[in-house]
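User: I'm preparing a small set of examples for a lab meeting where we compare how different chains pack in three dimensions. I only have the primary sequence for this one, and I'd like the structure in C-alpha cell form so I can line it up with the others. Please keep the answer compact; I'll paste it straight into my notes.
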Amino acid sequence: MGLLRKHWLGRIGLFPTLLFTVLALRIVIGLLQQQVPSQGIILWLVLSVVLFVWQVVGTSRAADRALKDRGNVLSLYAAYFVLLIAAMLTLLQLADGVSSKYAIAEETYAVGTMPVLRGEKAVLVMGNLSWDLFAQFEATLAQHPSISEIHFDSTGGYVFVARAMALNILERELDTHVVNKCYSACTIAFLAGRKRTMLKDAELGFHRYKLESDQPGLISVADELDRDRLFFAERGLSRAFIQKVFAAEHSELWKPSRATLVQGGVLVQ
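Assistant: Understood. Below is the C-alpha cell output for the 269-residue chain.
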C-alpha cells in the first residue's frame, strides 16, 4: 500500500516509474489476463482501467516533480510518450478481454445446451423461438445424429425461426411431439414432423400473425399467411382446419381438442 501511495503522489523517480510501474506492469497485466476465466473477465477489465488511471496520475505527478527539480522538459515528453504506449496497450487488452469473453460464450453456446432425451433419440425445444435457440437447435442435431424426435414446450416466437426449424425437421424426416404446449409459431415447426403426437394434457394453440417491425413495407403479412396456408395443406391438414387457424386473431389463441386435431390432420401416428 505504501508503494501504491508513493506512486500516486509522484514520489517515485520518473525513470523507474516509466519502466516498471507503467510499461512492465502493463505488460504483466496483459499476460495475466490470459489466465482469467470468462466469468471474471469483466471485473478484471474494470480493475485494469482503474490501474491505468492510477498509472497516469502517478506518472504525471512524477514528471511534474522531475521538471521542477531538474528543469528538463524532455521528462514531460518522455512521460507522455510512455503513457500513450500504456494507453494503447490498455485498449488492446480491453478489446482482447471483451472479444475473448464473446468467443468463449459462442464456443460454449455452439455445443448446444438443449436437453437430449430417451438415449439421445429426442431433443427438447423449450422457450421462445429465437435465432439463438435455433443455433442451439442446429448444433444439438449436428452433435447427436441419432436424434429422431423433436419435443416441444414453447409459447411461440419468430415465424422465420419456426420455418428454419421446420426445414431441418423435414430434411431429417424427424418426428415431432408436444410435451406441454406449442403455441403460435411453434406449430409451424411441429407440423413439419413425419409423425406428430402430443401428451394427453398437452396443447396446441393457433392464431394469425402480428407484424412487429418498424418498416412494415418490407414484409407482407398476407403473403406470409398464404405461405403457411400452403405449408399446412402440404402437411395434410384439412381445408376446414386451416380456415379456422387463420380466422383466429392474433389476440386470440385457438386451442382445438385432440379429436379436432386428429380429424383436421394435425396429429399423425
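A couple of notes for your slides: DSSP finds ten helices and six strands in the chain. Residues 102-112, 213-217 have pLDDT under 50 and may be disordered.

User: Perfect, thanks.
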